[in-house]
Structures are given as C-alpha cells and as structure tokens.
C-alpha cells in the first residue's frame, strides 16, 4: 500500500510539474477521501455492520476454541510429571495439531471476512467513483485525486461530504 501511495504521489507531482503555472492556476482540482466516502454512505454503514456482525460471531467462536486450547495446555503441564514419556509426547503432538488447526481456521475466517467485505464494498466503490466522474463533468473539475495520494490539501477542495450526500440522495430515488 505504501509503495502504491508513493507511486501515485510521484505521478501526481510529475503531472503537475509538466503543467504550466498559468494552466495550473486555471485548473479545477478536488480531492475525495474514497475510503471515508464508501464507509459513510448508508450502504457502506450497512456493509460495515454486516461485516462486524459476521466478525463478532466468528471471533467469539475462535476465542472459545483458543480458551479450550489454553485449558488443555494447562492440564497437560499439570499432568506432565505424572504421564509416561510416550503419553506426554502424544498429548503434546495432539495439542500442537489442534493449535495449528485453529490457526488455519483463523486464516480461513480472515479470508472469508475480506471476501465478504470486498463483495459488499465493491459495488459501493463503483457507485462512488461514478459520482466522482459525474462531479468532474458537471462542475468542470480537471482532476479529482484521492486524498490519500497527497500529503496535504486544504479542506475547501474536499468533495467527500458532498459525494456522500449525493450518494445517499440517489439511494432514495
């Protein structure tokens, strides 16, 4: 992500350096915080709630399994001196196997969560990008840049709130 941000920033500066000062002064530029715009639309908030609900249920399940494994480990440590060496080794291997399985489940849950998040957010991102293009055409912006691509921008150039409002208005139509 940092590399991408640096690359985009470099491209923006390269383009701006090629443009004459007069042309730049006459250019209309705006910025949008695309991530915030997506998250704060009504659809985005619903998507976040859905993902959060899914995450919480999965997290509770993982926490329970992890607590069970911690208890098993404590029991194993208590019984270590009483168990035969072979029995102890077998139980330790079983515990390690269970721990590895839990880690795999965790990775699978994360993948599923990321997939669900993309599935819910991608259509919202497309709609927001469509609004950005429409804003650019209607208000004759020469460039609309994602706010994350520039280190500083004055708030007067930010169209994020307008974009969120317009998105939510369209939802009712």
Tell me the series of helices and strands, N- to C-terminal. HHEHHHEH
Query: Approximately how much helix is present in the residues?
Result: over 70%
The number of strands is 2
CATH topology: Protein Binding, DinI Protein, Chain A
Radius of gyration: 26 Å
Number of helices: 6
Strand content: under 5%
- From the spread of the alpha carbons, the general shape counts as elongated
CATH architecture heading: 2-Layer Sandwich
The separation of the N and C termini measures 36 Å
> Mean pLDDT, rounded to whole units?
85
Assign the CATH class. Answer: Alpha Beta
For this structure, what is the CATH homologous superfamily?
A: Skp domain
Strand order of the largest sheet: 1-2
For the report, how would you describe the main beta sheet? Answer: 2 strands, parallel
Provide keyphrases for this structure:
single chain, 78% helix, Protein Binding, DinI Protein, Chain A, mainly alpha, 173 residues, 2 strands, two-stranded parallel ribbon, 5% strand
General description of the model:
By secondary structure, the chain is mainly α. It has a single domain, classed as 2-Layer Sandwich (Protein Binding, DinI Protein, Chain A), CATH 3.30.910.20. 78% of the residues lie in helices and 5% in strands. The chain is built from 6 helices and 2 strands; from the N terminus they run H-H-E-H-H-H-E-H. It has helices at 2-18, 21-26, 34-40, 42-79, 85-138, 160-172; strands spanning 29-32, 143-146. It has a two-stranded parallel sheet. Helix 4 (42-79) packs antiparallel against helix 5 and helix 5 (85-138) crosses helix 6 (160-172). The longest helix is centred in the middle third of the chain and has 54 residues, at 85-138. It is elongated, with a radius of gyration of 26 Å. The two termini are 36 Å apart.
């Amino acid at each position: 992500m940092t590399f991408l941000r640096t690359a985009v920033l470099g491209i923006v500066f390269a383009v701006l350096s090629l443009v004459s000062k007069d042309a730049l002064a006459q250019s209309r530029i705006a910025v949008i915080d695309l991530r915030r715009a997506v998250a704060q639309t009504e659809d985005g908030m619903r998507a976040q709630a859905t993902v959060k609900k899914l995450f919480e249920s999965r997290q509770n399940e993982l926490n329970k399994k992890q607590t069970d494994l911690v208890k098993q480990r404590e029991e194993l440590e208590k019984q270590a001196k009483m168990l035969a060496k072979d029995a102890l080794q077998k139980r330790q291997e079983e515990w390690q196997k269970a721990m590895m399985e839990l880690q795999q489940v965790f990775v699978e849950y994360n993948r599923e969560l990321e997939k669900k998040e993309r599935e819910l957010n991608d259509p919202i991102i497309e709609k927001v990008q469509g609004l950005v293009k429409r804003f650019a055409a209607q208000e004759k912006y020469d460039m609309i840049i994602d706010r994350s691509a520039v280190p500083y921008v004055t708030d007067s150039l930010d169209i994020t709130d307008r974009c969120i409002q317009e998105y939510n208005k369209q939802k009712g139509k």
